[in-house]
Design a protein that fits this description.
The complex is a heterodimer of chains A (485) and B (188). Chain A is mainly α and 485 residues long. Chain A is built from 21 helices and four strands. Chain B is an alpha+beta fold. The chains are: A mainly alpha (485), B alpha+beta (188).
Chain lengths: 485, 188
């Protein structure tokens, strides 16, 4: 026995660590597979967040005045700072993605059914904590995007009846976004939420050990609470394997891949760029959430106006209520997705909706296109005369922010490429002067000559003219933008 | 007896009525009463101690819920700086700013000069979800970059999701100075 062994034996004698933990590591579990690796991978991503987060706090200054410049320093000047920030960003993305996959896997395999209802409910808590910590982290970037995200968050909370304004004040830490705001989010993001996540993870793992890892489901073997525990114990006796290493090796392999992916993405793509400094008086802002909240950003833009105040408050509450109700209402019966078409359909439908909303949020066609350039000549079709003059007014009055001619212009309103095929002069005038559901009325904002110009221009927008415009050769090679505001 | 306790430990395992470790029934009953009393005392003290430590902590944390709203008149420029009919951004220090607020200490508003002595000040915040609206001079409209809210020059909703006109701040002219009365971030 060499010295090392003697030291280990001494430690074990005085602490009993292996005596206590060994049986847990080697506890008997059913034969599982690669579908079971996402929970532990989420935990690994969380640990990456803890480690990179602590690293960042050694330089980050949680002060409203200096946080931005300290982040600039971390990103541009600190040795390996860009990589660490990138790892923290992609670690967050990994955590959100992996906890989502894990939840879907558990749902599809019916692993939330008896006796694992509490495993699911604690998991729901972890999902909500993960989303909250992701959002608060985005705010600690403390750039222009971040401060307006705080305001948007506070305004949403403000829609809660009666106590809404108080909650909003609580979120921003007073009357205005200011010195108190960042410190609150820092405390939440760095102490409170990680502490809660550790607690919940501990409880979650305790429950995994107590209730056992769910066996892969088989069609025709429904869960019956009165007999399940007995048959699960029999299954373990029959074909159980020790968790370490027979089941755990897959977790380790996948976790390694996750870490490699995080580091690679951080090195190649890097952290999200900081937007402008957090000066609330810079009005030229374009606030957007990180990619995993784009779907919700789209929901906020596209829900019917009359329903907003209800949906903004009740929508998230209803989603949480559904997640809580799942194991309480459906804790018995078939576990196999082959016998649960509604479960599979729900997942497929939710996935489709999330994907579509994320794409919509990324395009955000409801936003005016503030950067649009004047119409190029080949789209106007002439270089002088009333149609040309009208096109200039069409641009200067901001019509192009929301309407497009061919592929030029915003997407908020309908394309007007062939509007003259659909509307008469009189109908156009009424629409422009009175506006519509999402369109401002321009009466009082257009001189008669300007209105006539716009109408002349729009009257020239026919399918015939559009076909001509698609072959710019007829207009000569000059397609450069002309005209000015 | 490690801790100087005078209670027979064995009786903890024996219910009332059992003599256990040679302890009489009545003595065991007394012991149970005593233990109940001690556990109640301990739990009460735990609650009391948690409250003594917790109340000030909660108070500190929740203060923004109840703290006073300081509101002040802030000068934003001279009357002559703002041509009649113009709409411009004005910046002023928020009245609750802290010594370390630095670059977030200031807040802004859209100031519109309607006539010789009449001004309107609009909050920057879209009444939909608070994003900063932009003034589009040529189009004569305020537009929000987030969810497509549009307002007329008088702050009325022209399109998109905003449920209310732009919030107005009180404005006054004193001598040659234009002043805005600061009010908290408008929560819809």
């Amino acid at each position: 026995m060499n010295r090392l062994r003697r030291l280990a034996a001494w430690l074990e004698d005085r602490t009993g660590i292996w005596h206590a933990l060994g049986p847990i590591a080697k506890h008997v579990v059913p034969r599982t597979g690669w579908a079971y690796v996402f929970g532990s991978a989420t935990l690994v991503a969380f640990l990456i967040q803890v480690v990179t987060g602590i690293t960042l706090t050694t330089v980050y200054v949680p002060s409203a005045d200096e946080a931005y410049s300290s982040l600039e320093f971390i990103t541009e000047r600190a040795t390996l700072g860009r990589l660490i920030r990138g790892m923290h960003f992609f670690g967050a993305s990994a955590m959100v993605v992996l906890i989502g996959i894990h939840a879907v896997r558990v749902f599809l395999m019916g692993a939330f059914k008896f006796p694992r209802e509490m495993n699911w409910l604690v998991g729901v808590g972890l999902l909500l904590l993960t989303l909250t910590i992701a959002f608060t982290g985005q705010l600690l970037r403390w750039d222009q995007n971040a401060i307006w995200s705080v305001v948007v968050g506070a305004e949403q909370a403000g829609r809660v009846p009666v106590i809404g304004t108080a909650i909003a004040r609580f979120i921003i830490g007073g009357d205005f976004l200011g010195g108190a705001t960042l410190s609150r989010f820092f405390a939440l993001h760095v102490f409170v939420l990680p502490g809660l996540i550790f607690l919940f993870v501990g409880f979650h793992l305790f429950l995994v050990i107590r209730n056992g890892i769910s066996e892969p489901p088989h069609a025709g073997e429904p869960v019956e609470p009165s007999t399940y525990r007995k048959s699960y114990a029999a299954l373990l006796r029959r074909e159980g394997v020790p968790f370490w290493p027979t089941a755990a090796w897959r977790d380790v392999v996948f976790a390694t891949i996750v870490i490699l992916a995080i580091v690679t993405l951080a090195a190649v793509i890097g952290p999200p760029a900081l937007s402008k400094p957090p000066d609330p008086t810079i009005v030229d802002a374009y606030p957007r959430p990180d990619w995993y909240f784009l779907w919700y950003f789209a929901v906020l833009a596209m829900m019917p106006h009359w329903a907003e105040s209800y949906l903004m408050v009740l929508g998230p509450l209803a989603l949480i209520a559904v997640l809580i109700a799942i194991p309480l209402l459906f804790n018995r019966g078939e576990r196999s997705p082959r016998r649960r078409p509604w479960a599979v359909g729900t997942v497929a439908f939710s996935g489709l909706v999330l994907t579509i909303l994320t794409i919509a949020g990324n395009q955000s066609h409801w936003s005016p296109d503030f950067g649009v350039q004047p119409l190029p000549v080949h789209l106007i079709g002439t270089t002088s005369g009333p149609i040309y003059e009208g096109a200039q007014v069409f641009y200067s009055k901001g019509c192009l922010y929301c309407h497009r001619i061919e592929d030029h212009g915003g997407h908020r309103g309908p394309a007007l490429t062939t509007i003259a095929d659909r509307l008469t002069r009189r109908e156009m005038t009424i629409r422009i002067m009175n506006g519509g559901y999402n369109m401002p009325g321009f009466a009082g904002n257009l001189a008669p000559a300007e209105l006539d110009g716009i109408i002349e221009f729009l009257r020239s927008r026919t399918s015939e003219g559009a076909t001509r415009a698609r072959t710019p050769a007829s207009m000569g090679p000059d397609t450069s933008a002309i005209g000015s505001r | 007896m490690c801790c100087g306790s005078d209670e027979p430990i064995a009786s903890a395992a024996s219910g009332p009525g059992e003599t256990g470790d040679g302890v009489s029934t009545s003595a065991a009953g007394e012991t149970m009463d005593r233990r109940r009393w001690m556990s109640r005392l301990s739990l009460t003290l735990c609650g009391l101690a948690a409250a003594v430590a917790g109340v000030p902590i909660l108070g500190f944390f929740l203060a923004p819920f109840v703290s006073a709203h300081p509101e002040r008149w802030r000068g934003v420029g001279r009357v002559s700086q703002f041509p009649v009919g113009s709409t411009t951004t004005v910046r002023f220090e928020d009245p609750s700013s802290l010594p370390w607020s630095g670059q977030v200490a200031k807040t802004a508003a859209w100031l519109r000069r309607e006539g010789e002595a009449s001004f309107i000040a609009f909050s920057l915040d879209c009444t939909h979800l608070g994003c900063p609206v932009r003034w589009e001079e040529q189009a004569n409209l305020f537009m929000c970059p987030c969810h497509g809210g549009v307002y007329y020059s008088n702050g009325e909703v022209a399109g998109g999701p905003p449920p209310r006109p732009l919030t107005r701040y009180p404005v006054r002219v004193r001598g040659d100075a234009v002043e805005i009365h600061t009010t908290p971030l408008p929560i819809t």
